[in-house]
Amino acid sequence: SAAVGLDLASRFQESLVCYQEGIDLLLQVVKATKDEAKKHRYRQKISELLFFSDGKYHKQIRIEENATGFGYEKLFQEYLTEIVSEVWVEDPYIRHVHQASRYSLYNFLRFCEMLVKGPCKVKTIHLLTSYDEGNGRSQQISGLEEIQQSLRNYGVTLNIAFSSSIHDREIRFNNGWMIKIGRGLDYFKKPQGRFSIGYCDFDLRPCHETTVDVFHTKHTKKM
């Protein structure tokens, strides 16, 4: 925690010392622990710290078919620190709600609601997506404009851009975290009915199988 704080303040040398101290401490704990499950967790954390201290942090989460417990808050919360003020969303399929039985606009709205709730103080969201093909384009644009206007009431600016060549799906925060989800924000299955468990609470909504890759991008020029 202290190391991340120093990192975000660009005091990388001091943060590196904190990471090394944390690794040494965890190594001592591993040696003193007989519980194999705890040993495994501690070794996993050591591995993460080693990646981070080398500037090559990468964590992968596998969401299995029909898995639950992967609402946006659960997935993103640990990366949404208080200093996050700007967010970039690249997803080609933020489209009309009926397109291919997807709820993409509602998913994006739910993602925005999470950002508004905090604890981060988001002021600007950049969305890069592609136009809906066919008759859904006008509904897509009007839906995004409605989200844009609603966010304005909360002091948040939504910048919308369209690209016909976009294919990557990634979300970036200005504290250096980048999350790539194989299916983008649209990894939830269609609810069984309007009054079924999981319709309102996305933590209870079954998911499609997908992979989530988390990176820290302090050494890239992407930001």
TrEMBL record:
<dbReference type="InterPro" id="IPR038113">
    <property type="entry name" value="MITD1_C_sf"/>
</dbReference>
<protein>
    <submittedName>
        <fullName>MIT domain-containing protein 1</fullName>
    </submittedName>
</protein>
<dbReference type="InterPro" id="IPR036181">
    <property type="entry name" value="MIT_dom_sf"/>
</dbReference>
<feature type="domain" description="MIT">
    <location>
        <begin position="2"/>
        <end position="50"/>
    </location>
</feature>
<dbReference type="InterPro" id="IPR007330">
    <property type="entry name" value="MIT_dom"/>
</dbReference>
<feature type="domain" description="MITD1 C-terminal phospholipase D-like">
    <location>
        <begin position="69"/>
        <end position="216"/>
    </location>
</feature>
<dbReference type="InterPro" id="IPR052817">
    <property type="entry name" value="MIT_domain_contain_protein1"/>
</dbReference>
<dbReference type="InterPro" id="IPR032341">
    <property type="entry name" value="MITD1_C"/>
</dbReference>
<dbReference type="Pfam" id="PF04212">
    <property type="entry name" value="MIT"/>
</dbReference>
<dbReference type="GO" id="GO:0030496">
    <property type="term" value="C:midbody"/>
</dbReference>
<dbReference type="Pfam" id="PF16565">
    <property type="entry name" value="MIT_C"/>
</dbReference>
<dbReference type="GO" id="GO:0061952">
    <property type="term" value="P:midbody abscission"/>
</dbReference>
